[in-house]
Design a protein that fits this description.
Distance between the termini: 8 Å
Largest sheet: 5 strands, antiparallel
Strand order of the largest sheet: 2-1-5-4-3
Shape: globular
Order of helices and strands: EHEHHEEHHHE
Structural class: alpha+beta
């Protein structure tokens, strides 16, 4: 079994950590979170690369952001983690149109971590994450990733 990455929004870090108590995580029907199983994209390196491509910010500067892949909370069994997504990426995604997301999907697919990935699938992931980011922005929420090992 692989690692699951479900992206979701919450109004605060404290509220986001409550997802650890939800059987099935944020995509469970009764979770109370706006979420999606958007694909196998990790919230640290691969999303960091997406942010660098989308914003033009050097990758090292992206990873210097305290919210870049920060482990916010972990289950007692260490099998579920809540990880923060940067506000800069959420803002950039919310502002990006489909053409811009497709444009960055091509170089994103050529990175070492995603070598061989289909740019069209990466663009679809980015569109879905952008839609979540837009809904989060409209609700004054932040983005998070629930990771299950």
């Amino acid at each position: 079994m692989g690692v699951l990455y479900d992206y979701f929004s919450a109004p605060t870090d404290e509220q986001a950590t409550k997802v650890l108590d939800v059987e099935g995580g944020p995509t469970a029907a009764d979770s109370g979170f706006d979420a999606g199983t958007l694909g196998g994209i990790d919230p640290v390196v691969q999303l960091g690369t997406l942010e660098a491509l989308l914003t033009g910010t050097p990758y090292d500067d992206v990873t210097d952001d305290p919210r870049a892949g920060h482990n916010l909370a972990m289950s007692e069994d260490y099998d579920r983690i809540v990880i923060t997504v940067t506000d800069a990426l959420a803002t950039a995604l919310a502002a990006a149109d489909d053409a811009r997301l497709a444009e960055v999907a091509e170089p994103w697919s050529q990175t070492e971590e995603l070598e061989g990935a289909d740019p069209a699938q990466l663009a679809a992931f980015a569109r879905d994450l952008a839609a979540l980011a837009r809904r989060a922005a409209a609700s004054d929420h932040r983005l998070y990733c629930w990771t299950c090992i």
